[in-house]
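Thread: "does anyone have the structure for this chain?"

Original post by V.I.:
We have the sequence but no experimental structure in hand. Need at least a predicted one for the grant figures.
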Amino acid sequence: MENQHGLDFLTRVGHMVVFIWQNRIMTHMGRPYARAYLIALTTV
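Reply from O.Q.:
Generated one for you, tokens below.
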């Protein structure tokens, strides 16, 4: 029970981190390059 809750929390934190990084990358680089980078990052 407690493990599941911890996993849920980690998943939410991970999504938030990815979301923040996505916004940063989008502003620093071009959109197509950022999207390709994100896809490569999430599939590893």
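V.I.: this helps a lot. The chain has one domain: 2-43.
O.Q.: and The mean pLDDT is 78.
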